[in-house]
Amino acid sequence: MTAIRTRMRDPGLIAAPSVDPATVRVTFEYVACATVWLLVGTLAGLIASIKLHWPEFLPYAWLSFGRVRPAHTNLVLFGWASLVLVGLALYVVARTSRVPLWSPRLARVALGLWNLALLGGLVTLLAGVNRGPQEYREWVWPLAVVLAAAVLIDGYVAYRTVAARTLPEVYVSNWYILGGFCYLPILYVTSYLPFYQGGIGNTVVQGYYMHNAMGMWFTQLALGVSYYAIPRLLGRPVYSYALGVLGFWTNLLFYPLIGAHHFIFSPVAWWLQTTAILFSVGMMVPVWAGTGNLLLTFKGGSGMVRRSYALPFFVVGLIGYGLASTQGTIEAFRTANIYLHFTNFTVGHSHATMYGFIVFIAWGAVYGLVPRLTGREPSPLAVGVHFWLALVGILTYVIAISTAGILQGLAWVAGQSFIASVIAAEPMWLWRTVGGLLMAGGHVVFAVNVWAMRPQRVVVPAPAPNAVGMPA
Ligand code: HEM
Ligand code: HEM
Questions:
Q1: pTM of the shown model
Q2: Residues 248 and 240 sit within 8 Å (Cβ to Cβ)
């Protein structure tokens, strides 16, 4: 076991001396809370999945499909993916600015608000109290205000930390991270403003909110954390700083206008749909600038990937980013969308992107950075079990549910009855549950690994390797 440990250990894996204990603790608290929400959100996803092929399963109003589904999406999006990335981002802004986090105490207040909103959201959604079919914004507005306050506080802490930096330049990670913190409040306010909530305007706002939450929040934070963690773990500078900046600005240029691709062939203005399709093609620039740049940073480092337990998660996440986003661009074309819209194919795309990209990057960053903070490693064997359960699980999920989507689309376009499409898709729903069970198993192992990485009372100081051109 010791041999495996030594072989798998990431380079420079000991707490760095300039990380103050307060930053360590608050970062770990974000990761730990996120992990709890991951487990609860996964359970909700599994219940929803089982109900589609076994409708009599748990026949209680509180656990009906219509309530469990938004509980799942809100928990995995805001409870897990957002919290874990915010925690890591706060660490990254401090490290790349070479200063302690501006106010760990305020960051902890924000964490309390996140948890309050998430708990309230879970209870109200399961009780059937919501704003109707407004995807990812089903929470009643008082809870949304609490969440917005948490985001603003975290954003302020990140901004003040970068403002206090001891280096002249703002490292590329911080462009992405601060960009995400600037954009989410805009989205959130737009999506809750009462005068945008009626008629076709509401549909346009829904598309704008839904896709920008993905592109201007999760993507920004995940890339920001990657631009720090990948060079750090590989011990070399990022392949091209300029490509990183190009990706940032073109993401900002193209993303805000692609929301209407969720509503192709709907009563939304035709020109707006066409613009969204064109900009979806434009999205290939930031997607491949980011994927290519970060993958090229690995060039010649395949040995390190084999020895590391964090880097394989990044490799999967980056490939997931490039491939699943390209799938999204293809799905936006009218010729493809006519078959795929309203089908399970979109659920496949959501999991390929959110899980195959964002969640794998988050795991890579947790395994890559947290042991450096706390001085404690998880068992490499357990990390391997987590990796393979998650990877085989998500592949099973995405292949099964995308096949279901294609079968549904073909049945509808051929004019068959709706029930014929249900019968065609049902075996694939069972396979989705199989994939989901593997993923859930991986999440439990991940939780054990997070516990194994919990901070010691005293952080062990160690010399920090600090190559030129590489984040500290
Ligand atoms: C080039 C980039 C991308 C393009 C062009 C794209 C395109 C699309 C399209 C056309 C749909 C709607 C399909 C339909 O309903 O007919 C969609 C849905 C979705 N996409 Fe993407 N996608 C991209 C990247 C991403 C990324 C990076 C993420 C996650 C981080 C993501 C997450 C989602 C989600 C969650 C949905 C489902 C939304 C819903 O209806 O609930 N996409 N995407
Ligand atoms: C933890 C990572 C996960 C993330 C980030 C995630 C994200 C999402 C998103 C964004 C949607 C909305 C899809 C759409 O409308 O297009 C969704 C729906 C769903 N997810 Fe997940 N999910 C995760 C894990 C799981 C797991 C482990 C399962 C278990 C099978 C699962 C089962 C479902 C189900 C059944 C739906 C509803 C799909 C439908 O309406 O037909 N998810 N999830």
A1: 0.94
A2: no
Q: CA 18, CA 20: separation in Å to the nearest integer?
A: 6
Instruction: Give the pLDDT confidence of 154-166 residue by residue, as tens digits.
Output: 999 999 999 999 9
Overall average pLDDT of the 236-244 stretch: 94
Q: Could you tell me if the CB of 232 is within 6 A of ligand 2?
A: no
CA distance 13 to 372: 5
Instruction: Tell me if 81 CB under 6 Å of ligand 2.
Output: yes
- Asked if 114 and 72 touch (Cβ cutoff 8 Å), the reply is no
Is the CB of 187 inside a 6 Å radius of any atom of ligand 2? no
Contact 205, 196 (CB under 8 A): yes
- Whole-number Å distance between alpha carbons of 148 and 144: 6
Burial zone of 244 (CB within 10 Å; 0-12 exposed, 13-18 middle, 19+ buried) = buried
Residue with tokens 């936006």: 332
Q: Which tokens sit at 157?
A: 């802490």
Ligand 2 binding pocket mutation candidate from 350, 396, 399, 422 (most atoms within 8 A of CB): 350
For the segment 86-132, what is each residue's pLDDT rounded down to a tens digit? 999 999 999 999 999 999 999 999 999 999 999 999 999 999 999 98
Q: Closest ligand 2 atom to the C-alpha of 440?
A: 27
Ligand 1 site residues (CB inside 6 A) read 135, 210, 214, 218-219, 261-262, 280, 283, 287, 325, 328-329, 331-332, 337, 340-341, 346, 349-350, 353-354, 357-358
pLDDT at 379 over 50: yes
